[in-house]
Design brief:
alpha/beta, 5-stranded parallel beta sheet
């Protein structure tokens, strides 16, 4: 099958064949999303919990739609209205979910490693939907899928990631995934936005936006994460825009076929000008659409592994027919 992992916790340890399997599977589900009836019966009888301890719009909606497109039974958990407000621990929350015989959990949490902790207390498969500034594997996978759909094989492609690298879980997952697929990765931003261990990740670092983007096949622009910044990382947003913001003038100095990406939400007029975000080189909305297909693929592959482990039970997953 090309995929044998029970959980998807990050991309740092995931191999090229495994990523390719996910992307190839996502291509099939992408075709499903273009049908008049956008639903398959694959997950009938499967229960998935969306366990979100941080605010989310795109990721949560994308996962929920992916689950419903697969015909899963879906439960949504919000920390703001849960027993955590009454003092319940994450471990007790996990044990209660396990007692409900849930098959899969999609988890977003502000603490790095929280999804790994959950694997110790829940028998079902865990998908990391973002753990603090650590990783966000499905966002990186949908980025890779969108890149591959537009530029083909990523081996040797030049990808520049611009912005708030130090606070970005997307950047870390993108870097691991891109390096695994053979891309050359350049990071660009202020020195205060670069993690201390950045050179050890096998990337090029530049603090000059023109130098970093001149020959790039793909420019992936990150949001300035003001909610995660406890210190003075920038003198002002205006200065960041003047030095690193992508507007039509800077776009004109890049390759004519450059691909502009952004994981969202966009701070319009800060890291990205509206005319560039909505322009012909932008594939930002394609990323959103592709996210549903990629998450359907991840859910499907993890469930196949889970079904294979439960050999004493009847087969409950139907094959996907394209």
């Amino acid at each position: 099958m090309g995929w044998s992992r029970k959980h998807l916790l990050g991309l740092e340890e995931v191999g090229r064949d495994e990523i390719t399997t996910i992307l190839d599977t996502a291509s099939k589900f992408r075709e499903v999303l273009d049908r008049p009836v956008k639903k398959v019966p694959t997950f009938r009888g499967i229960t998935v919990v969306n366990l979100f301890f941080e605010a989310s719009t795109r990721t949560r909606m994308s996962f929920e739609l992916a689950e419903k497109r697969l015909s899963a039974d879906v439960m949504n958990f919000s920390a703001s209205t849960s027993s955590l407000k009454k003092g319940e621990t994450l471990r007790d929350t996990a044990r209660n979910i396990e007692a409900m015989k849930v098959d899969m959990v999609v988890m977003r949490h502000p603490s790095p490693g929280a999804p790994h902790f959950l694997t110790q207390h829940i028998d079902g498969s865990i998908i990391n939907a973002g753990d603090g500034p650590h990783e966000h594997p499905t966002q990186a996978l949908l980025d890779l899928f969108t890149m591959r759909e537009n530029v083909g094989d990523l081996d040797g492609k030049r990808v520049t990631i611009v912005g708030d690298i130090v606070h970005s879980r997307v950047a870390r997952s993108d870097i691991w995934g891109l390096k695994t697929m053979g891309a050359d990765v350049t990071l660009c931003g202020p020195k205060t936005f670069m993690p201390a261990e950045v050179e050890a990740m096998g990337v090029t670092v530049s603090h000059d936006i023109h130098e970093a983007t001149a020959d790039a096949d793909i420019v992936n622009i990150l949001r300035i994460q003001r909610e995660r910044q406890e210190g003075a990382f920038l003198p002002s947003l205006r200065e960041y825009t003047n030095l690193f913001g992508i507007d039509s003038e800077r776009l004109a100095r890049m390759r004519d076929d450059v691909l502009i990406m952004h994981p969202g939400p966009i701070n319009r007029g800060v890291e990205l000008a509206p005319d560039v975000a909505d322009g012909p080189r932008s594939v930002i909305l394609d990323q959103v659409t592709n996210g549903v297909a990629v998450r359907m693929a991840v859910l499907y592959l993890l469930s196949r592994v889970r079904a294979a482990e439960r050999v004493d039970e009847p087969e409950i997953l139907a094959e996907v027919t394209i």
